[in-house]
Amino acid sequence: QPEDELSRSSHSNPSKSLVNGIKTNPASNSPKSSLPVPMGPPVYVDLAYIPNHCSGKNTDPEFFKRVRASYYVVSGNDAANGEPSRAVLDALLEGKSQWGENLQVTLIPTHDTEVTREWYQQTHEKQQELNIMVLASSSTVVMQDESFPACKIEF
C-alpha cells in the first residue's frame, strides 16, 4: 500500500515534488525558508556520496538532516558548473547542527578545490563545534599510466 499513499499525497498536493526522496516545495527557493522535515526517522549510514558531485541543484540542508553519515564524499571538481557548491557545504553545517547528537562526521573531498579550501578555512570553528573533520589525503594510487589521490576508510 505505500505506493497508493505516495500517489495520493502527490495528487493531493501537486506543488510538492520529491528531491532525493525528500518532499520539497519548488516554489520556495529562498534560503531563509524552512521546509518541514518529512515524516519518519533519519537514515543512518556509514558512507554517503553527496549527490550530483556536490551540486546545489538538488542537495540542501534537508538532505543532511535526513541522511546522517559518518563519512560524506564530496566528488565535485567542476567550478564552471558550481561543483562542489559552497551552498551544499554550508547545508552540511546547517543540517548537522539540527541532529541533536554530536556524532563524529568526516568529510572526504576527492579533489582539492578553491571552494572546499575557502569553506574549510572560513568555517573551521563551526566544523569543530559540530564535530566535523575534513580529511585530506596525500596518498596517491598509481594504476598503469594514471595516478590519482586516494583515501583509505576503515569501518
From TrEMBL:
Residues 9-33 have a biased composition (Polar residues). GO terms for molecular function: actin binding; microtubule binding. It comes from the Eukaryota. One of its GO terms (cellular component) is microtubule. GO terms for biological process: axonogenesis; dendrite development; microtubule cytoskeleton organization; regulation of microtubule depolymerization. Residues 1-37 are annotated as: Disordered. This is MAP1A protein. It comes from Probosciger aterrimus.
